[in-house]
């Protein structure tokens, strides 16, 4: 069988006064590569300016800069080793290759691109009159410290080898976790590509806050003060998580719309629906999948419930209510009303939610790849919707099996736990019996949970 590996490219930047460290770095990379190929399936490949193909002598400075920029930007990690020198500036040029390499890597960090930056400075002896290059080294170290960019100082070759070996293994584990997450997220965000020109490829539709909740003092002048309708905070957090995961896999062709501004050709796009209880277009879209969906949102005695079926074809369902209101009543009864206080956020609470994906098999649009998808991030209350986004971002391992098959339906019933202004945990409770959900809504259970967690 052909063996394939994830490739971790490491660029090593070092001027001429640290040849031993450069050799040590390449030796450590070779040793680590031998270990990680077999255990993690990662091939670690070192790159330096000296390993590039021969270039034309007396090449223009901008051409050299482009070649270096292309090489550094293709790497996942940047390793910098400096002592007293900042690199040799060739005749007719204004910067050394080392200086150019550093500039490209720092620009990548500033742009928010994913690159691991490891820098090492050999201890400098006291010098009341350092040369121009040593001054640049000291200035760079101060700049890295100001930016909060990782660096270490070391005394000798042995210390450098120990530091770099430790840091390289740590970086590889981070890389492994990151690429593993990307793979899981890509399996979830399977998107159909229509043959026609459609933009965006993915549209996220959310419900804004109803006007009645805004309590305007001058109702007829309400929209003079606002650019767009308000978004529930918890829905906004879910939107943040959705955007984060899409950008992590390199996908940019998405837009957010409120339910009143969705594009007319929405049905020709992949779609994300936020907060179904308040999202009427999302509820109508879910009707397309009523024979395949394990869930529905219904109103009962003035409150929204999830009706959850363990099998889509079953007529039996479990009623799942949100205990959130009870949690808040128990902890906020003495501080209700008035302006927001810090104490309002310092509570423990739970909610339930749905995270789902369906393939639209109606064949409305000729497709060049796959099928259009509908994704649902829907809490009974806002906390659950936030938790659906959190689950995608933080519990991505749960996506691997259910999401990998093309056109497979993905449906999770989630329990979301909140504490002190942040989501604490989200669990898949799709297989729990009806008694479990009844117990989580029992006031004695709720009071016990509060005592245990606050």
Features:
454 residues; alpha/beta; Rossmann fold; 2 domains; seven-stranded mixed beta sheet; five-stranded parallel beta sheet; 13 helices; 17 strands; 37% helix
- What is the radius of gyration? 28 Å
Q: What kind of sheet is the major sheet?
A: 7 strands, mixed
**How does the overall form come out from the CA principal axes?**
elongated
Distance N terminus to C terminus? 55 Å
Structural class determined from secondary elements: alpha/beta
- H-E string: EHEHEHEHEHEEHEEHEEEHHEEEHHEEHH
State the helical fraction: 25-40%
Distinct helical segment count: 13
Short description, anyone?
The chain is an alpha/beta fold and 454 residues long.
Describe how the helices and strands are arranged.
Layout: E1 6-13, H1 19-39, E2 42-47, H2 61-73, E3 77-82, H3 97-110, E4 116-122, H4 132-147, E5 152-154, H5 157-188, E6 193-194, E7 202-206, H6 233-248, E8 254-258, E9 270-274, H7 280-286, E10 295-300, E11 303-308, E12 318-321, H8 324-332, H9 342-345, E13 348-359, E14 367-369, E15 373-379, H10 382-394, H11 400-404, E16 410-419, E17 422-428, H12 434-440, H13 443-453
Parallel strand pairs: 1-2, 1-3, 3-4, 4-5, 7-8, 7-9, 9-15
Antiparallel strand pairs: 6-14, 10-11, 11-12, 13-15, 13-16, 16-17
Helix pairs in contact: 1-5, 2-3, 6-10, 8-13
Describe, in plain words, how this protein is organized in 3D:
With 454 residues, this protein is α/β, with parallel strands linked by helices. The protein has two domains: 6-184, Rossmann fold (3-Layer(aba) Sandwich); 198-453, no CATH class. 37% of the residues lie in helices and 22% in strands. It has 13 helices and 17 strands. It has helices at residues 19-39, 61-73, 97-110, 132-147, 157-188, 233-248, 280-286, 324-332, 342-345, 382-394, 400-404, 434-440, 443-453, and strands spanning 6-13, 42-47, 77-82, 116-122, 152-154, 193-194, 202-206, 254-258, 270-274, 295-300, 303-308, 318-321, 348-359, 367-369, 373-379, 410-419, 422-428. The strands form four sheets. A seven-stranded mixed sheet has the order 8-7-9-15-13-16-17, sandwiched between helices. Strands 2-1-3-4-5 form a five-stranded parallel sheet, with helices on both faces. The chain is elongated and about 80 Å long. The model has no long low-confidence stretch (mean pLDDT 86).
């Amino acid at each position: 069988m052909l063996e394939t590996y994830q490739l971790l490219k490491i660029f090593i930047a070092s001027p001429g006064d640290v040849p031993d460290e450069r050799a040590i770095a390449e030796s450590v990379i070779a040793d680590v590569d031998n270990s990680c190929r077999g255990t993690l399936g990662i091939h670690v490949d070192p790159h330096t300016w000296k390993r590039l193909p021969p270039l034309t002598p007396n090449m223009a400075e901008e051409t050299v800069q482009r070649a270096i920029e292309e090489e550094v930007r293709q790497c996942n990690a940047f390793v910098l080793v400096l002592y007293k020198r900042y690199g040799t500036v060739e005749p007719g040029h204004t910067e050394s290759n080392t200086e150019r390499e550093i500039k490209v890597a720092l620009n990548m960090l500033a742009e928010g691109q994913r690159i691991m930056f490891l820098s090492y400075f050999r201890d400098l002896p006291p010098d009341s009159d350092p040369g121009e290059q040593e001054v640049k080294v000291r200035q760079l170290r101060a700049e890295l410290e100001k930016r909060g960019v990782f660096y270490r100082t070391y005394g000798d070759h042995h210390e450098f080898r120990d530091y770099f070996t430790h840091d390289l293994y740590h970086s590889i584990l981070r890389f492994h976790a990151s690429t593993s997450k990307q793979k899981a997220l890509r399996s979830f965000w399977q998107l159909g590509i229509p043959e026609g020109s459609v933009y965006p490829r993915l549209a996220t539709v959310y419900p804004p806050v109803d006007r009645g909740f805004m309590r305007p003092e001058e109702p007829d002048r309400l929209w003079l003060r606002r650019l767009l309708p308000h978004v529930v905070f918890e829905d906004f957090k879910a939107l943040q998580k959705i955007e984060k995961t899409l950008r992590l896999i390199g996908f940019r062709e998405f837009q957010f719309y409120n339910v009143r501004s969705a594009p007319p050709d929405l049905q020709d796009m992949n779609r994300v629906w936020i907060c179904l209880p308040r999202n009427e277009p999302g509820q109508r879209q879910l009707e397309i999948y009523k024979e395949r969906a394990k869930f529905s949102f219904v109103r009962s005695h003035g409150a929204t419930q999830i009706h959850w079926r363990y099998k889509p074809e079953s007529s039996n369902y479990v009623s799942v209510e949100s205990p959130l209101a009870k949690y808040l009543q128990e902890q906020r009864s003495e501080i209700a009303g008035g302006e927001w206080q810090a104490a309002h956020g310092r509570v423990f609470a739970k909610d339930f939610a749905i995270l789902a994906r369906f393939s639209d098999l109606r064949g409305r649009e000729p497709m060049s790849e796959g099928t259009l998808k509908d994704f649902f991030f829907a809490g009974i209350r806002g906390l659950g919707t936030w938790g659906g986004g959190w689950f995608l971002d933080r519990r991505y391992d749960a996506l691997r099996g259910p999401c990998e098959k093309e056109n497979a339906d993905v449906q999770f019933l989630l329990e979301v736990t909140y504490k002190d202004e942040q989501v604490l945990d989200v669990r898949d409770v799709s297989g729990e019996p009806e008694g479990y959900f009844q117990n989580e809504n029992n006031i004695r259970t709720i009071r016990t949970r509060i005592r245990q967690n606050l």
